[in-house]
Amino acid sequence: MATRSRSTLRASMVSGSSAGEMWLSRGELAAAVGISPAMLSRLIRLGLVEPAAPGPGEFAAGMATRLKRMLRLHHDVGVNLTGAAIIIDLLEQVDRMETELRRLRGAP
Q1: Which residues lie closer than 8 Å to 67 by C-beta, 6 or more apart?
Q2: pTM of the model as a whole
Q3: Residue 54 burial by Cβ neighbours in a 10 Å radius (0-12, 13-18, 19+)
Q4: Biggest CA-to-CA distance, the chain
Q5: Would you write out the chain's pLDDT as a tens digit for each of its 108 residues?
Q6: What is the rounded distance in angstroms from the CA atom of residue 85 to the CA atom of residue 79?
Q7: Closest residue by Cα to residue 43 from 70, 25, 17, 21
Q8: I want to staple 22 with a disulfide (CB 3.0 to 4.6 A). Which of 61, 62, 93, 108 is the partner?
Q9: At what angle do helices 6-14 and 81-105 cross, to 10 degrees?
C-alpha cells in the first residue's frame, strides 16, 4: 500500500479554511470534539491534525467536524487514525469534485 507523506496529509487537512471562518484554540477544539487536550496533542504529534496558524486561534472551526468524522471512523469501524485521516481526505476530495461538477453543469 502506498503511503502519503506527512506534508501531503497536512496540506489537505488545513485546506478549505476561508477568510470568514471562526478559529479555535487547542482547548476549544478538544472540547468541541470531546477529547482530552492530551489526545489532541498526540494527534498533532502524529501529524494527523495541524494548526493552521500559531497562537490562540490555531485551528479553523471546520477542523472540529473533520476530527469528529475521523474519530468516529476510528471508534465505530476500527480504522486506525492514519487510515481514518486518509479516508476523510478522500471523502472531502470527492465532495469538492462533485461540487465542481455541479457548477460546471450549471446545476444548483
Answers
A1: 29, 33, 35, 43, 49
A2: 0.72
A3: exposed
A4: 46
A5: 334 444 434 334 444 445 567 899 999 999 999 999 999 999 999 999 988 877 767 999 999 999 999 999 999 999 999 999 999 999 999 999 999 999 999 866
A6: 9
A7: 70
A8: 61
A9: 50
User: What whole-number distance in Å separates Cα of residue 56 and Cα of residue 26?
Assistant: 8
Cβ distance 23 to 57 under 8 Å? Answer: yes
Cell readout for 5 is 507523506
Q: Is the separation of the CB atoms in 68 and 33 below 8 Å?
A: yes
DSSP 10-74: HHHHHTT--TT--EE-HHHHHHHHT--HHHHHHHHHTTSS--SSSSSS-EETHHHHHHHHHHHII
d(CA 18, CA 27): 21
